[in-house]
Design goal:
Number of helices: 3
Distance between the termini: 31 Å
Radius of gyration: 15 Å
Shape: globular
Number of strands: 9
Strand content: 35-45%
Order of helices and strands: EHEEHEEEEHEE
CATH architecture: Beta Barrel
Structural class: alpha+beta
Strand order of the largest sheet: 1-2-7-3-6-5
CATH superfamily: Acid Proteases
Length: 137
Amino acid sequence: MGLVYAELTIVSVRDLVLYGEGQLHEDEIRKIKVNSLVDSGAYMLVIPEHVKIQLGLKKIDQREVEMADGKIQLCEVVGPIEIRFANRKAVSNAIIMGNEVLLGAIPMEELDVIIDTRGQRLIVNPENPTMPKMKIK
């Protein structure tokens, strides 16, 4: 299987709240369309510094992150961020690292999407085409 990418829209939840309170116009909501690497072997949403800046995200925490080669790196956590794909939305925090967006397993579960290995693409779970379904037990 090769690399799988998906077009996502990521949105500042802070801006969505301000819009909902009437403090921001709809066209002022910061959002970005990105071509994201999809990696079910990673846990979180990862975004580069320039995306953090474009969305006006603030640091909310920091975490030690173990890289694929076993190295440990201290990274900033920002959020919350709304992730949009097809007819799905999920809210997640993000790790600041690297130079591309990476969609990991936790937000994939919330979106209820799967990797179509034959088509090399991210798709809405065909068992739940109209809305995401989550197991909570």
